[in-house]
Amino acid sequence: QRVLSGPTFRLYVTTDVLGVELAGAVKNVVAIAAGVADGLNLGASARASLITRGLAELSRLGRALGARPETFAGLAGVGDLILTCSSDLSRNRTVGLELGRGRGLPEILAGRRTVAEGVETARAVKAVAARLGVETPICAQVHAILFEGRAPRDALTLLMTRELKVEAD
Fold it and tell me: Residue 60: its pLDDT value, please?
């Protein structure tokens, strides 16, 4: 931390390696969802809602795996999540954007020179969440769009018509 921090870069440390790794992986799946919302022209409020509820999913999954909740409230969690879901440079958000505009995954991936990690991570999140009995509806719909042929608008409808709940997860 002392060696790398300076006037234009500030480094924070944590011992929650699991939480940092999980946040770094799952945020890519949520960024695909945010890109889909942007591709469907749903607006900034929809993206903000996806980011917020994506953080809830990430936190639930993290708690079930033994990560520390405060990790998800920090730079590795909400900080990186906001950036990845909002940046035009985000590889994962860009994949979602193209999906939302109607392009198919094989076509999108064939034209890329870089890896969008969230595509394969969506498989892992679905499997781990199912094994642990953790609800991850946004990640599940991203998986359905990517691998089950679900249309983005249909995924949105399924998310919006879920049973109503209290926000506290």
Answer: 97
